[in-house]
Amino acid sequence: MGKPKGRRGKSARRARQGQLGLMSNAGKKSKQFTKLTELREEKKDEKREIEALKEKVRGKLADEQAAKQPHSFVIHTGSVGRYVKRLERDMRRVMEPNTASHLKVSKRNNFKDFIVNAAPLGVSHLTVFTKTEEHINMRIMRLPQGPTVSFRVKNYSLARDILSSLKRPVIFQELFLNSPLVVLNGFNQPDAKHLNLVQSLIQNMFPSIHVDTLNLANIRRTVLVNYELETDTIEFRHYAIKTVPAGLSKSAKKIVQSRIPDLSKYEDISDYFLNPGALSESEYEEEQVEVDLPQDLKTRGCKKGQKTKIRLVEIGPRLTLQLTKIEEGIDEGEVLYHAFVKKSTKEIVALRRKLPLIRKRRLRHQKNVEHAVIRKLEARNKRLEKEEADFNIRKEALIRKQKQVTGDEELYSDEEKPPPISRQEEEEMESSDENDEPPNKVRKEERNEKSRRPKFRTSKNKS
């Protein structure tokens, strides 16, 4: 037999050369490898730069869209009580996420402070709750030019009261990550222009919806505002939208929605599906609407093209409002509508003529108030400075007197020696010392005076 044929593979040849220490083509390979690694790193860097640019563009677009969306403050003024404050918190929850949820309103805050600070923060609407002895009022203002719409809150229910009345409340934090869907009904009444203004104001408090770019999975809440013509009131309701797959039994829904059923009572899985007791649909008694989904939803079992039932679960608050007044501007200007005061055309024309004069008087009054406050502050500062100067003079006089008594005045030279205390300063110091007597000494002197008074005793007639 001849010699076995040697391995002619490239890798085997490189291995033998490496064992012998003869790497003739090592330099060529290393150059190719470095070129490939450099190309790969360049491609990775390009991808990273492109992704960073995309993120910047997305951030700018998101900031621009957020700036265009309406933002709101919900506050109260004056003493309103704890229940109105809870109603204020519930209204902030309705307006989320485009509102200041944790805004603190203290007694020191003035109503004008919120109006001044609203402009740099991009706030477009301001909702204010006030309380009188008879009614609770709510005002909605469009900043910065108005109008101001005033309502009277006839009835209201807090969110916690509504949730406590439900058997299965639907409330979780993901509901409030996106703004609600607004539904307005009954405002298109003939010969009622004030209702059209109220409709546009409420509609513009929430972000607009673009049908082409709308994602149905982000709509988890809805706000219903309905105008009742018979009672002349506005009903405000807040609902959570719940979607359930249609055409399935209750037992099948549990499995589709990845809820593990209790099968300990059944001998076979078929009994679980064929049991007539498990096919009941009594968990929801209200009306349900079946729709064909054009998009996928976050709820399990609700996919595109499938039939889905839509349910509305109220989460509060609940308000019954009555429109009282519409003003031009922010709490100042012409009254465009009033529910209780009706004026003729002549009176309206006369008021419009007097309106510039009324505005001048208001500005003059505001300036007078500001000047009065400035004068009070200046007088207070002058009084404090005078009291401090008098205190320093008195302190120096006491120091000079003490040094004269202890003999420390010899430490001074003839030039640095302070002037002697005058007779008038000594009398003032003595009088102040007499007035500043301790209360214990005064009480002791009073008790001594009482003990010196003669005591009179009355003798009782013995029977």
TrEMBL record:
GO BP, sorted A to Z: ribosomal large subunit assembly; rRNA processing
Compositionally biased intervals (Basic residues): 1-16, 452-463
Compositional bias ranges of the Basic and acidic residues kind: 37-47, 438-451
Coiled coil: 367-401
Highest taxon listed in the record's lineage: Eukaryota
Record domain Brix: where: 70-332
A GO term for molecular function: rRNA binding
One of the record's GO cellular component terms: preribosome, large subunit precursor
Keywords for this protein: Coiled coil
Region (Disordered): 1-47, 404-463
Composition-biased stretches (Acidic residues): 425-437
Matches recorded under Pfam families: Brix
UniProt cross-references to InterPro entries, sorted A to Z: Brix, PPAN-like
Protein name: Brix domain-containing protein
Lineage, uppermost ranks: Eukaryota, Metazoa, Ecdysozoa, Nematoda, Chromadorea
